[in-house]
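The authors assume throughout that readers already know how a fold can be written as discrete tokens. For illustration, here is how one protein appears when written out as sequence plus structure tokens.
>
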Amino acid sequence: MQLSRRTLLAGAAAAVATPATMWLAEGTAQAAASYDVAVCEQYRNQIQIYSSAAGWTSPKWVWSPGGGGWSNLSDVKFRNTAKFGEVALVAASGGNVGIIDKNASGTQGTGSLLWHAAPGSNPHAIERIPNIGAIVAASSGGYLHVYAPTAVNDPSTLALVQTISFPGAHGLWYDDVHNRLWAVGQGKATSYAVSGTYRNTRLTGGVNISIGASNLGHSLDASYKNSAILLVSHSTAVISINKTTHAVSTVHANHAVKSFSQHSSGEAFWVQSTGKKYHGDTRNWVNPDVQFFNAAGARSFTRGLSYGAEFYKARLHAVGYH
């Protein structure tokens, strides 16, 4: 997470209060829709799922891997598989990435891992390429790591097959319509074609879209309201990128947003770094609250935890790439 800290601390302190578009004033504290939100909560180092419709007291699901290579959980996505049903994809700044059998009985710790690897260099994102069964991990040390299987339905057969230099690598999202893997890092978002199968899987033909040379990209996410775009948070704004035309538009002109997600209702939510430390630790890239926006784009309500959470990312609990 080192790149995030250096780039965004100053930005967090100077975050603008007024967005560049229609996302404006404070709204009423109501959720028009009900949906589940998954968070990377770094104080207890857990992946947790809560409903948007009520205060966050008891999570619907928790994954708690301990520390070491699993410290500072930094990304989670959910995907469907033919063999295991829903799985969770996780990355941790401690150095590890993995696939969790979300429906496993018993422990919700590392015993539910179907596969894991230790690419190191502060992994910030993970994504699964369907049918091929490949996994891509993004490390802020500056690389994309492609893991591919000998059997699509057997994650234990995944092995490293490709490493691509990608400065500031922080976010990943797969476009299943165009068979493109998107990554975001320092100054750019890049769309790769996916070629080959099994251990011959490769990312090729990268197409770069500028996000501003001084901006470090943080997260990539789908808009579940508008399937034509991807949502990107970077050092100084939240933007949208049209997946076909590559047109870039500003959604929020706010600094230090670590993740931004949008539900099909149009409601959205983000985690914005405060630059403050909590619980006496060193995490100044987190926030104790998730900020929600109504469908018109106004700030609506926040969700937090009684013990003072340290949220790094929040994402819609959905399995679709959209």
About this structure: The first helix runs from residue 2 to 13.
